[in-house]
Predict the 3D structure of the following.
Amino acid sequence: MTCCEGWTSCNGFSLLVLLLLGVGLNLIPLLVNRIDEGKFLQNPISCFEWWFPGILGAGLMVIPATTMSLAARKRACCNNRGGMFLSSFLNLLTIIGAVYCILVSAQALMKGPLICHSPDNSTSSCEFSLDKLGIRPESFDLQWFTKESCVLPNDPNSPPVNDWGNYTLPSGSKEERYKKIHFSVFVGLLLVGGLELLFGLSQILIGFLGCLCGVSKRRSRIV
């Protein structure tokens, strides 16, 4: 077995684990919302799980490259130059999906959960546009998570919503639970997207080298 075949096998299994992890993380806020509210589209934790960064970006778009990487490993059905080339080429989809997952996760961490912005927690305040995926480093301060509370009382004379430091909520409240779920899910998806990006780039290089140099010959059995 050549080093290209061994690396391809490692990349294939790593991408498989990461895509399953990404799908699982994306499902967590959807399932929590279903348990808490009984409906998927009413009072969600945030808008960004509905962008499906883990299911679409880190999941479905990674399946072709994962399948071909596993098929191009030693003793698999596509263990040849063509299989190594396809494992390299299809990882372009992996990179696009990983970048999408990273951008959505970073935007989600900048904005915080929906409970910090919308009193009714409905998806009517969600804006699904690619223009919203821009990242501004100065906005990445996580104040919604570090402050005691990001929700203020429904008082017309109360300070602006950004004044998060003046109010506290009891431990175990809905806001505290949603903030922890939102933070954990999208930090996890950010890491998953970053790792998929690294494995995808490495397989593009390894697959190209495997296509140029060839794979190890199969030993013929003598009966």
Notes: The chain has a mean pLDDT of 79. The two ends are 23 Å apart (CA to CA).
